[in-house]
Amino acid sequence: MVEPSAEAQAQLLVLRQRFLERSKAELAQLVVLLPDQAVLVTRLQLAEAHAGLHKLAGSGGIFGCAELSARARALELRAQSWLEASAAVSDPEWRTWREELSALPRLLGA
After folding, report:
1. Under the phi-then-psi rule, with left for phi > 0, alpha for psi from -120 to 50, and beta for the rest, what region is 65?
2. What are the per-10-residue average pLDDT scores of the chain (110 residues)?
3. Considering Cα of 37, then 43, then 47, then 48, what sign does the dihedral take?
4. Do residues 49 and 89 touch, judged by C-beta distance below 8 A?
5. Phi, psi of 109, rounded to the nearest 5 degrees
6. What Cα–Cα distance (Å) separates residue 28 from each residue in 24, 35, 57?
7. Cβ contacts of residue 90 below 8 Å, gap of 6+?
8. 85 Cβ partners below 8 Å, 6+ apart?
9. How far apart are CA 69 and CA 91, in angstroms?
10. How many other CB atoms sit within 10 Å of the CB of residue 41?
C-alpha cells in the first residue's frame, strides 16, 4: 500500500476536522428538534433523524470514528424499525434512544 504524501495527509486532517465540527453541530440541532416524549414525535422528525444517523454512520467510518459509526448505525436501525412498523414508540424506549443520541457528540470529542 502506498503511503499518502504529507500534503494529502494534511488535507485529510482538515477534512476530518470539518467532519467532526459539522457532525457536532448537526447532532446538537437534531437533539434540540426532537421532542422529549415519544407521543410528540412526528413521522417526519423520525425520518429526518434516520437520514442524519445514516449519513453519520457512513461518514464516521470514512473518517476513522468506528465507535461513532457503530452507535449511529444502531440508532439508525432502531429509527428505521419504528418507521417501518408505523406504530407508536413507547416513552421509555424513546427516552433511551434520545439519551443514546445525545451521547454521540462525546464520541466526537465534545
Report:
1. beta
2. 82 92 94 93 94 95 93 97 88 96 88
3. negative
4. no
5. 90, 20
6. 6, 13, 16
7. 38
8. none
9. 25
10. 20
| Residues in the chain, overall count | 110
For the beta carbon of residue 96, count every other beta carbon within 10 angstroms. Answer: 12
* Amino acid of residue 105: P
Q: 94 near 79, Cβ under 8 Å?
A: no
pLDDT value of residue 72: 97
Which cell numbers hold the place of 23? 457532525
Q: How far apart are alpha carbons 98 and 95 in whole angstroms?
A: 5
Q: Are residues 85 and 52 in contact, defined by beta-carbon separation less than 8 angstroms? A: no
Tell me how far the alpha carbon of residue 99 is from its chain's centroid: 12
Of 13, 35, 36, 17, nearest to 25 by C-alpha is 17
